[in-house]
Amino acid sequence: MRIERPRYTERFGAVRINEMQKVLELDSGRAREMRTYEDISAQKIEEDAIKDVEEKMAIVIPTKDEKLKLFEGVISGVPHECLIIVVSNSERGRVDRFMMEKGTLNQFCQFTQRQAFIIHQKDPVLAQALTEAGYTDLLDEHERVRDGKAEGMILAMLMATMAKKKHIGFIDADNYFPGAVWEYVKCYAAGFSMAQSPYAMVRILWHYKPKISGGIYFKKWGRVSETTNKCLNSLISAQTGFETDIIRTGNAGEHAMTLKLAQILPYASGYAVEPQELMSILEGFGGVLPMEQPTAAKHGIEVFQIETRNPHLHEEKGVEHLEEMLLPGLGSIYYSPLCQEETKQLIIDQLLSQNAIKPNEELPKPHLSPPLKEADLKKFATFMEEHLESYSVLEKE
Ligand code: GDD
Ligand code: MG
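A: This is the predicted complex of the input protein with guanosine-5'-diphosphate-alpha-D-mannose.
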């Protein structure tokens, strides 16, 4: 794969945010022993370097009642070396959609000779394992894991730690193009192979996100992403006194982290999770608030933003759904101790103009889960390993 080198890097304390980098070639050819010249504008990431990362990477697919055909396409796009972890919150009632997902994954693993885990978010064993680990923040009043994509992601981080992986990447289950899934993973791997720090994050943005209404229109930005990026950039600009538009991936659902980084960040519930990750990084390592993680601060936190070639086409879930996403995401910026008055006002103005709040209505404060390093990861793993057979889908179900 050949990717643009980052032309510019914004630095805040120990945080380095790289400007967006485009994928130039999906396949950049054989590794050559002798390089004839050093290309300063682009970086070739060799096949072997990508595979080395993929071997250490878990790819997480959060799913809730998605079409089985889409789920099947998504898993087929995950490169062979990666461990697949499916965290499902699908219906288990009259129609047991979870069993259908498990059956599909099982068959895929048998044909392709690979390993995967599949867990159901509401499985009481998971709640027990979390209790053993002293990490009960994810549980609701019925002692089950709460609904939400973020809650599923946190469970997957624990599973990936248990499987001794070094990297974790997330890919939604409602993607129509297996080729796009494949490219996301390649970009994650390329990002990690470029990273200097063991505390790194790769966030994806897409070249186009097609909309079908009459004809097909290759739209670049969604309304939610555009607003979230604007508010994040406003927060950073107000802090530094220099206007910036560095953040292009505020809502990036498709993103990956080293597990070292994943374990030290606090996470917001539901759809606030992605903007909150950036807030947690800026709060923890941006140099304005005290830095409480000296090892990570010493290495620095690196953020890559990579623009893919495949268009992103996923299930259209309606306008209401978009509003459900906008509000919590902006809430995570609004309530940050780094957020200054002008950014707060911008957030309110944006929400009012998009009818997402009424005048004088308070923004909901996102729920924050503590960093995973506060959980007893060993106890979680020991408990889960006793029950592992039911989650692993290499052998029989
Ligand atoms: N495990 C689990 N639990 N998965 C869930 C849950 C849940 O409670 N709710 C949703 N999911 C799964 C969906 O099935 C899908 O695979 C993925 O999480 C994303 O949910 P969507 O409902 O498709 O979200 P979206 O397409 O509107 O938004 C996506 O893109 C945004 C912008 O890039 C998400 O990835 C957002 O988090 C992201 O900000
Ligand atoms: Mg979607």
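Residues 62-64, 66, 87-89, 121, 147-149, 152, 172-174, 251-253, 271, 274, 314-315, 317, 321, 325 surround guanosine-5'-diphosphate-alpha-D-mannose (ligand 1) (CB under 6 Å). The chain is about 40% helix and 20% strand.
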